[in-house]
Amino acid sequence: MDKVYAALPDPPSEIEEEKVEEKAFGNFFAELESVELPLGTTLRSIYDDQPNAHKRFMEKLDARIRNHDREIEKMCNFHHQGFVDAITELLKVRADSEKLMGQVTDTNRRLQDAGRDVTAQTEEVICCRIQQRNMATTVEKLQLCIPVLEMYSKLKEQLDSKRYYAALKTMEQLEKVYIPRVSQYRFCQIMAENLPRLREEIKEISMSDLKDFLESIRKHSDKVGETAMRQAQQHRTFNSAVAKQVHTGHYSKPVYSLSGRTHTHISNGLLTDDDAGDEEEADEEVLTAQDLVDFSPVYRCLHIYTVLGDRETFENYYRKQRKKQARLVLQPQANMHETVEGYRRYFNQIVGFFVVEDHILHATRGLVTRVFTDELWNMALSKIIAVLRTHSSYCDDPDLVLELKNLIVICADTLQGYGFPVNRLFDLLFEVRDQYNETLLKKWAVVFREIFESDNYSPIPVETEEEYKLVTSRFPFHDPEIEKQDFPKKLPMSQSVPQIYTQVKEFIYASLKFSESLHRSSTEIDDMLRKSTNLLLTRTLSSCLQNLIKKPHIGLTELVQIIINTTHLEQACKYLEEFITNITNVSPETVHTTRLYGLSTFKDARHAAEGEIYTKLNQKIDEFIQLADYEWSMAESDGRASGYLMDLINFLRSTFQVFTHLPGKVAQTACMSACKHLSTSLMQMLLDTELKQISMGAIQQFNLDVMQCELFASSEPVPGFQGDTLQLAFIDLRQLLDLFMVWDWSTYLADYGQPNSKYLRVNPATALALLEKMKDTNKKNNIFSQFRKNDRDKQKLIETVVKQLRSLVNGMSS
Fold this sequence. Notes:
Component of the exocyst complex involved in the docking of exocytic vesicles with fusion sites on the plasma membrane. This protein is mainly α.
């Protein structure tokens, strides 16, 4: 196959090259003639294109210039005739223009001459306009500055008049509204610099006022508390009177208040003063805390610190200072317990403090909170209770303790009205009640001692019916037999009985005073009265009676009267219970009603008096026995009883006659005790170890004395003994003396140990001791010397009896 070759393009012709070159240089010249395009790029493209490009460019440029010159020449030739015509016209106008120029110059000269005055006046007008503009600008600026100055002046006036809260508000307006409008002026800058200093001054001044207020309120708390407590008491008194009116329909009982004024409630329900028409006092009674204290410093200071954004600092400072003041208020005086005024001042200050705090709590928002006041109150309550416990323990005056109780109640009622919990104060009153009862018991102990010391311990003589009624009105005494007797007559008890009974009732009244206003039920009051009365009877009166009975100067007669008195007081206990029931209106049949223990008190006192009677009676017998002066070696008796024994028997007779008013068993017991003691004393006299010898004559004399004792016993000195009961007190002596007087040893020895023995009460040891004393008299020619002379067999019998008695004694010991 034949190869096929593509045809090569023909080389460009010279004509085409020239066209391309022309076109390129045309573009270059267009770019050069354009003022907007930069020339550097065009020139660089010309020189960088081909060698000899600069030469060819210059050639083309010259050709281009020649072409433009030809076009300019053509244009000038085309417009030349019009130019010539214009020049010709211009030359014609030249003359007219010179003439016009002269006229214009002349007109201008004349116009300048004529406007010279106008120019001067115009300049004056311009100056006035400038002045007016300046004045208007000044007035405008002054109108902006005057409110600032007025506000600042107002600020100064408010500071001078101590209206600090308003001054702070004015400062705030100055800073936020007025000063920014004219802040470019120097005086405004000075004002702005002074405002922080003025704020600090206001803070210092207001804080100083607050300190003065705190100091003032500390001094005025006493008056505030006194007023609040007086109003609370008057309110309580009024409520009590209204309650009485509801029950009774009318009332006219005087009501007493702390201020000492007396109010009387009349039947129409109105409250009238004894000092009628005293309007100032009536106005004074309704004063409140804000009437007595100016709280404006607190409000002002609070508002100031609030505006200054420092309220928290103020609240913390106020609370801290009030806590310090609370501690000072709660600190009592050392001698507070000595007078009621000390307690009253203490309570007034406490109540005044918390009344002020309550007012601050409700009058301000957040200065003090309920939590803060409750914390303060709880702290104060613990301190108050501790202080009252300590100081009340020093009180020994029941009237002062009662006043203290009244103050506690009024204080509690007052603060309760302001919303403070006071249950612990009422609980404290139970402790104060115990202290009050203790002081009452001490006081009545003195009263009872004085009554006992002043009593004559003899029956009350009654001369007339009036005297009898007077006694029975003071003491519930009823005895039909005595009432039947004619005047004058005697009541069995002594003067101390109605006095004691009256004083017990007075004690109940005194105890009742403490129960008033305690908000307790009648049952609780009844229980308190009965318990305190029981303490009076079982502790105070019982102790006084026991001490009285033990006193050495109290004799048998007094003891007998004491027994009679306690018997009547014991019988009067039921009347005391009725008395308490009438006061409290609580039925004695109530389940939890406490019974009076007076019965046991008086029984114990009576038993103690009975025992003391037995003791003193025996002591008196011992005193008579000590007067005995037996001649133990006498050959024969005097034939009559010893003088000391007859005096003793006479004393016993007179004493037992006094016992007729005693209960039968007491008199019988006393008589039996005296006879037994006398018998024992006589037996001890015979068996005294210091008595070595005794003669038959002495035995006979002793027998006469014992016979007198037996006669006394058989004469029934105290009624009520059956048969020979009283004589049995001397049976031991009688059998012993009969044994020696009859010398019936054979019978004694033979019947010894038999239940029907004639000498059953004779102890072998006793008989042996007495026989030994009689045996020793043979050395001094006593009765045994006669035996030896008369009958030696009888001596042997005595020896035998002695041996047998010793054997009996030894047998008993073994």
